[in-house]
Amino acid sequence: MKVIAVERMWCEKPIGMQEMLESDRIADPSGVAVTVIADSAIVRAGMPLFLPDFATDWCVEFEPAVVISRLGKSIPARFASRYYNRIGVMGRLMPPTGYCGGALASSFDGALCAGPTVEAVEGAEWTVSMDGRDELTLGSDNMLIDETIALVSRYMMLKTGDVILPCRSGLHVKAAIGERLTATLNGLEHMTLKIK
After folding, report:
1. Of 48, 93, 140, 159, which cross-links 196 as Cys (Cβ 3.0–4.6 Å)?
2. What's the CA gap between 118 and 186, in Å, rounded?
């Protein structure tokens, strides 16, 4: 299992994404920023997130998550909805802008926290709020789930259980020891995250 995070804000469309999908050739991927995160970075359900010593100015960002349900490679966007069946929320420890930590900054133990997943319903919206402070609603036109699955599958085999974070939400709060964060998904409490 792997976690693939597309590093674009929900309000941005990757430059050249459509052209990349329509081309018969596999295009140079340098136009799309993607981070592959080790599955060992995920905090087990019910466990607290232990903030590393180096993460003093980091934040926790809640992002949409899609769980792949079938093995696939070079999946056309029009068939991508057949390759996932669950959605959810992941809390991701994010460094300050300009931080250059490479793979170790995205895949250290405890870099991701996952809530339970729910069945993906075609055309459903993803509404997440954080402790009642902020709320964001995203639809398929913002998340580009099908297009993202199609694009990623041109470069790597997607396997059952892989998780794709199709975009960044911008919903974040400073990561601080003692903080207790609650995220709701579509109006229901979805995940409680304790930081120690």
Report:
1. 48
2. 10
Beta-strand runs (E) in the chain: 2-6, 34-38, 42-43, 59-68, 84-94, 112-114, 118-119, 126-130, 134-138, 163-165, 172-174, 180-185, 188-194
Check: CB of residue 21 under 8 Å from CB of residue 14: no
Hunting for tokens 């699955």 — which residue is that? 149
**Burial of 140 per CB tally in 10 Å (0-12, 13-18, 19+):** middle
Report pLDDT for 167.
94
Residue 129, both tokens: 């709020």
3-state secondary structure of 106: helix
34 DSSP 8-state letter = E
pLDDT digits (tens, 9 = 90+) for 30-66: 778 899 999 999 998 778 889 999 998 999 999 999 9
Structure-token match 């930081």, residue found:
195
pTM metric for this prediction: 0.91
What tens digit of pLDDT does each residue of 162-186 get? Answer: 999 999 999 888 999 998 888 888 8
